[in-house]
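Sequence in, structure out.
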Amino acid sequence: MAEMLLEVASLNKSYGAIQATQDLHLNIEKGHIHALIGPNGAGKTTLVNQLTGDIFPDSGRIIYKSCEITRMSDYKRARLGIARSFQITHIFENLTVAENMALAINARNGHSFHFWRNSLKSSIVTANLDNALARVDLGHRARLKASHLSHGEKRQLEVGMALVGNPELLILDEPMAGMGSGGTVELSKLISSLKGSVTILLVEHDMDVVFSLADMVTVLVYGHNILTDSPTNVRTNKEVQAAYLGESVDA
């Protein structure tokens, strides 16, 4: 029997008359890449914010590793092993790649520091920095200022920073946004290389990426899960096609 890492049951969230999440059910199997797709305004970001603890649902339950986390704070969820990247890259442009990664390593290990540029000297950073950079293929960029990275490399760095705490669930929110074809290929390779070592919830508009990477796909429309199935079945499902204004989901 499949082991579920995350289970969402009857989740609801409204903003006035707008119901952003409607009786939503979602199960994410451990070790899988599970994609979340849907038209603009489908409620994807609202759902992600509820999973990470940035907002709380009006009703329903979120179970992570058999523990209810529905109203648990975001930092406690992070300690349990939930990490996230954002639609807009969250890195420090004026620091080097190594310094950005060092800050993430120190933060994940509860280290308090006053001078960011001294963060490279901590013992925990010395022990982990090279591996953290190598994991996202940025070792050769360590001394470069983050502002000089390509957009794709900035995404790689952000994913690397999210990975330093060895999360069990990594939520990638629109990682391909604004990416050229070359960057998309490289980041797709990185995400694929993580398969099995970390469970990934991939929120993404690029259907080629979704169908090439995902084990399962959930389609969200008006805050409601209309289908969870294999990429092949989702691609050909008429209800999914109708949700995309009558066009094929891979159009």
